[in-house]
Design goal:
- The protein is α/β, with parallel strands linked by helices and 117 residues long.
- The protein has a domain of 47 residues.
- The protein contains 5 helices and 5 strands, in the order E-E-H-E-H-E-H-H-E-H.
- It is globular and about 30 Å long.
- This is STAS domain-containing protein.
- InterPro entries: STAS_dom, STAS_dom_sf.
């Protein structure tokens, strides 16, 4: 993992929860994506990404989230984000379009429920 981000992964009710802290930018977006995808085995019911500890997100990070969402959608699995509305990454996602706003939840339990619907 890069020096500017940390990834922590666990499961709840067959949903992969991936918490990313630090920063996502062009230097680490592909590496983070590969590590998250490696956690999505055949038994996974979906993916929740917790960005609550993220201090910075650039366009590479936004594209990372879109690629993951598309991959999960192709497999018929749910995708959601946990992200506080007052965070800089939330503002970046809000500016990038309506799709990320539909994925975003304030709490992990709400995101988990959205994925399992």
């Amino acid at each position: 993992m890069s020096d500017i981000a940390s990834l922590f992964v666990w499961r709840r009710r067959r949903v992969v929860i991936a918490a990313i802290t630090g920063e996502i930018d062009i230097s680490n977006a592909r590496e983070l994506e590969a590590e998250i995808v490696a956690e999505l085995d055949a038994g996974a019911a979906g993916l929740v990404i917790d960005l609550g500890g993220l201090g910075f997100l650039d366009g590479s990070g936004v594209h990372l989230l879109y690629r993951l969402a598309d991959r999960l959608n192709e497999r018929g699995l749910g995708f959601a984000l946990v992200l506080p509305e007052d965070s800089p990454p939330y503002r970046v996602l809000a500016l990038s379009g309506t799709r990320p706003r539909a994925w975003t939840h304030a709490r992990e339990d709400d995101a988990l429920s959205a994925v399992l619907r």
